[in-house]
Specification:
Blueprint (H helix, E strand, L loop, with lengths): L10 H12 L3 E9 L4 E8 L6 E6 L9 H19 L8 E5 L4 E5 L5 E2 H8 L5 H18 L3 H9 L6 H6 L3 H13 L6 H15 L5 E4 L8 E3 L8 E2 L6 E4 L5 H4 L11 H4 L1 H10 L8 H20 L2 H5 L6 H19 L4 H17 L21
Antiparallel strand pairs: 1-2, 2-3, 3-5, 4-5, 6-8, 7-10, 8-9
Helix pairs in contact: 2-5, 4-11, 7-12, 8-12, 8-15, 12-14, 14-15
Protein name: Aminoglycoside phosphotransferase domain-containing protein
InterPro entries: Kinase-like_dom_sf (IPR011009)
Organism: Streptomyces yanii
């Protein structure tokens, strides 16, 4: 067996960790690097009841002293143990062993499940309606199951090191929203006084979720859910490095507004994904049944994401004509506006976002395309 790269994990340390955990000798047969490169699937040989293979996440040697690296590993460990041990739900992989001092986390191997984004890229969204529905349900189910349990989660997380629950609730990308006003003003689309007031109300909704406060893995996108390519859509959520308690409807944005990987995501109200998510959410957060409260929160979350993405404006201005990222930003702004309009929320903010998108269409003629043109931009069209 070839030596595993040092960036993945020290094999001797891994074997010792598992041997101690199972009180029986454990040897590594072989390994396979996964994406990202700090993750590997490792096949084991042992007389104990250890699984045949596990997934190992490690902090690379060169990042051990970085401020965020140990924090992220501890957050993932706490979140996954919270779900399985405190909540008794199987929405994520089980933790098999952990050594936070060594920067190593050993997780259940969820294969043969694969990440949903791989299936969407390979086959298109139309071929995976059942798996997209499972994606929507899993996002809602995570929030429903964990609402009202923040104290239990943070008690577990605090045992692994300092944690800022207030920052989690505000959202780690919240500071980027402020930059959007400056970018819009530079484009000649400054917000009116009514828009600023309405925007402040929307952001206050996200900062103070009330009953909608729930655990998120911090990156609710299709690359962070694993399902079987065929057969039952048995979903598992992954990548909890940025987990924390925040407004539950932040996790619904990915169904309505393109994430970093996509040009479009389609309209979840017509595909049924919106109902799948909302019904799952309401099982644990009954307030999700209130149309006004739900619509206001969803519009605020989608608007927030659109403004976060607007901070890329200066970077996209330097791109060559035809770059998909320009079209993606326009699609993101217009999708957020459409969601707010559908729920009759944030009329002044919606009009402002529409005006920004119109200015960008004129600024980038290559991106002035009809996103609603039949067949040209199907749901989950990848950004290239």
């Amino acid at each position: 067996m070839a030596d595993a790269p040092k960036e993945i994990c020290g094999l001797d340390a891994l074997q010792d960790l598992l041997t101690d955990r199972y009180a029986s000798p454990v040897a590594v047969n072989r390994w396979e690097s996964l994406e990202p490169w700090t993750v590997a699937r490792v096949w084991l040989r042992s007389a104990s009841a250890l699984p045949r293979s596990v997934v190992v996440k490690c902090i690379p040697d060169g990042q051990r002293e970085a401020r965020t690296a140990p924090w992220r590993l501890c957050t993932e460990l706490a979140a996954l143990q919270f779900l399985s041990e405190d909540m008794g739900i199987g929405l994520g992989p089980r933790v098999i062993a952990a050594d936070t001092a060594a920067g190593c986390l050993v997780l259940e191997d969820l294969a043969p499940r694969v990440c949903l984004d791989q299936l969407l890229r390979r086959d298109g969204a139309a071929a995976h309606g059942d798996r997209l529905a499972a994606f929507a349900r899993a996002r809602g189910a995570l929030s429903a199951a964990t609402a009202g349990r923040a104290e239990t989660y943070y008690a577990r997380r605090a045992r692994l090191g300092p944690v800022d629950a207030a920052a989690d609730q505000a959202g780690r990308l919240a500071p980027l929203r402020k930059e959007a006003i400056g970018h819009a003003s530079a484009l000649g689309v400054p917000p009116s006084g009514r828009t600023i007031h309405e925007l402040a109300t929307a952001m206050d909704e996200l900062a103070n979720p009330g009953p909608f406060l729930a655990l998120s893995n911090g990156d609710a996108e299709a690359n962070n859910i694993m399902l079987h390519a065929t057969g039952p859509a048995d979903a598992r959520l992954i990548d909890f490095e940025f987990a924390g308690y925040t407004h539950a409807l932040n996790d619904a944005v990915c169904l309505y507004v393109p994430g970093p990987a996509w040009l479009t995501v389609g309209d979840p109200t017509t595909t049924g994904l919106a109902d799948q998510y909302r019904h799952a959410l309401a099982r644990g957060i009954p307030e999700a049944e209130d149309d006004r409260r739900y619509g206001d929160g969803l519009a605020a979350a989608c608007t927030s994401w659109a403004l976060v993405r607007l901070q890329r404006l200066t970077q996209l201005d330097t791109r060559s004509p035809g770059d998909h990222s320009r079209l993606q930003l326009i699609a993101t702004l217009e999708a957020a506006a459409h969601t707010a309009e559908t729920h009759q929320a944030l009329p002044h903010v919606t009009g402002w976002i529409r005006r920004i998108a119109a200015v960008l269409r004129r600024r980038w003629p290559d991106a002035n395309q009809d996103l609603a043109e039949s067949g040209r931009f199907p749901p989950y069209q990848p950004r290239h």
